[in-house]
UniProtKB/TrEMBL annotation:
Family stated for the protein in its record: Belongs to the peptidase C14A family.
Alphabetically ordered keywords of this record: Apoptosis, Hydrolase, Protease
Name by which UniProt lists this protein: Caspase Dronc
Domain Caspase family p10 as annotated: residue spans: 134-211
Residue ranges occupied by any Caspase family p20 domain in the UniProt entry: 7-130
Gene Ontology terms: biological process: apoptotic process; proteolysis
SUPFAM superfamilies, sorted: Caspase-like
Gene Ontology molecular function: cysteine-type endopeptidase activity
InterPro entries assigned: Caspase-like_dom_sf, Pept_C14, Pept_C14_caspase, Pept_C14_p10, Pept_C14_p20, Pept_C14A
Keyword Hydrolase: yes
């Protein structure tokens, strides 16, 4: 990504600290640290605190529509959890806002101004109390999107997965290999169709497969 313009990037922070009968004590320090960090990196900063669900939705949509920069970071800090199917953020008025809705605001369709530009979403929220470590989950495509297949070469994802692992597993860790697979998918198009892979790292450390080493 080209990251050389004077308007290098924009940061949006939403920090919900106070709730009905509850508070995330110490959370204000996160705002201070993020402001100091991104100011030094030359980013413009928009900060909000204790937003209702309605105001939070509006702030996110306004930021996505008005950003004309090289890249954007969005950091949401609040209580949260796991619903029946999706993660959610708890708003100041104790409503649930699905993480998926926030992600959707930065799709190419809803956010054309940032098409082709890096968009980083970060969520400082709880997601339940299950203990899961050393787990890496990879998906061939994003939720709600197709995974493509060639009748001669097989699926795009598995074809590239095998290529990258065969060529680079001797000196590259597994998570980096998955990033290389996604880079390969980004370069592949078929009748204007594109595919983007994804993965989730849940306490998964560096893992080298060391093929041929005993």
């Amino acid at each position: 990504y080209p990251m050389r313009s004077r308007h290098r990037g924009a940061l949006l922070t939403i920090n919900n600290v106070e709730f009905l009968g509850d508070a995330r004590n110490g959370a204000e320090v996160d705002d201070q640290n993020l402001t100091e960090l991104f100011t030094q990196m030359g980013f413009s900063i928009t900060s909000h605190k204790d937003l209702t669900k309605r105001d939070m939705c509006q702030a996110i949509q306004d930021f996505a529509n008005e950003s004309r920069v090289d890249c954007v970071f969005v950091v949401v800090m609040s209580h949260g959890g796991e619903g029946p199917t999706r993660s959610y953020v708890t708003t100041h008025d104790c409503q649930r806002l699905e993480v998926q809705w926030i992600e959707d605001q930065f799709t190419n369709r809803l956010c054309p101004a940032l098409r082709g530009k890096p968009k980083v979403l970060m969520f400082q929220i709880c997601r339940g109390d299950r203990e899961v470590t050393d787990l890496l989950i990879a998906f061939s495509t994003l939720p709600g999107h197709k995974a493509f297949r060639d009748i001669y070469k097989g699926t795009w994802y598995v074809e590239l997965l095998c290529q990258m692992f065969m060529q680079h597993a001797h000196d590259t860790d597994v998570e980096s290999l998955l990033k290389m697979v996604d880079d390969g998918l980004a370069k592949r198009m078929s009748d204007a169709n594109m595919q983007t892979a994804s993965y989730e790292n849940r306490g998964f450390k560096l893992c080298f497969l060391n093929p041929g080493l005993y």
